[in-house]
Amino acid sequence: MKGLGARLRWGLPISLGVILVISLDLWAGGEGWGLTLLALLFGTGALLEGIKLGTPRVSDRVLGVLFFGGTFLLWSVPTYRSALGFEDGIPLAWMLGLPLFLAPVITEAVPSIPKARWRGALHALLVSQWLVTPVLACVMVSEDPLGAHLFLCALIMIKGSDTGAYLIGRPFGKTPLHPVSPRKTVEGLLGAIGAACLLGVAYSLILQHETFPVSQAIFFGILAAVAGQLTDLQESAFKRAAGAKNSGETIPGLGGMLDMMDSLILAIPLIVWLRTLLHG
């Protein structure tokens, strides 16, 4: 399949590198520092690309980075979070609600505003809050009984679902999923769900952790695949509004960092939120 070689040539080493860093977290006791640094690295790269899609001004990018960094510190440092009255952690409704609310605002509402100097700043602010959410969710992973295993399993399911959608959708896809992305099909979505569930079940069987049974792995696999495809469609709408094919050219064959992490934006907060409800 055309394009698959480039995806594997760059996507596979990057994925293996991420898995290695997270594995080091696990071997060190699951404190999550490696995961947090990775999330910040990819989150900042995606942030810069996302802001550039909506405004060319360097000052807007600087503003977005400041908002992104300030929000991250505010919610991830216990002292600052306590000053806001949230000693128990990041509000789950906020962590899950922001990605759902901000995506259509960024892709539809803001571009419809008549051009003005403040529109670029507003775009940068909204994108910073949209993309800081999955980074903050990664910080919360260390509080889960699974530790970094939760993110690693979620990452494998989500990226596996992308591959499943590509492998099934390309040769067998006939029913369009949504007009915003003509290449995405219902058959591809089914392939994504199947791949995510299989990988989740395999991880559950290998891990053998009492809080992560096979039934939960299947449930999370379905959610990860659907959420991943949803945010992929949202990013496609984002790029279409900006008149761009990719968010950037950082990774040959894959586009930019935002292209690579778009499917994680909603899926990671969703899985962390559900695990918190189930296991405190």
Distance linking N and C termini: 44 Å
Q: How many domain regions? A: 1
Share of residues in helices: over 70%
Strand tally, please?
Answer: 0
What Rg is obtained from the alpha carbons, in whole angstroms? Answer: 18 Å
- Helix/strand order, N-terminal first: HHHHHHHHHHH
Unreliable runs: none
Q: How much beta, percentage-wise? A: under 5%
What would you call the structural class? mainly alpha
Architecture overview:
The protein is mainly α and 280 residues long. It has one domain (4-279). It is 75% helix and 0% strand. The protein has eleven helices and no strands. α9 (214-242) runs antiparallel to α11 (264-279). The longest helix has 29 residues, at 214-242. 46% of the residues are buried. The mean pLDDT is 85.
Helices and strands in order, then pairings?
Elements: H1 4-27, H2 33-54, H3 58-76, H4 78-83, H5 92-109, H6 117-140, H7 148-172, H8 186-207, H9 214-242, H10 257-261, H11 264-279
Helix pairs in contact: 1-2, 2-3, 2-6, 3-6, 5-6, 5-9, 5-11, 6-11, 7-8, 7-9, 7-11, 8-9, 9-11
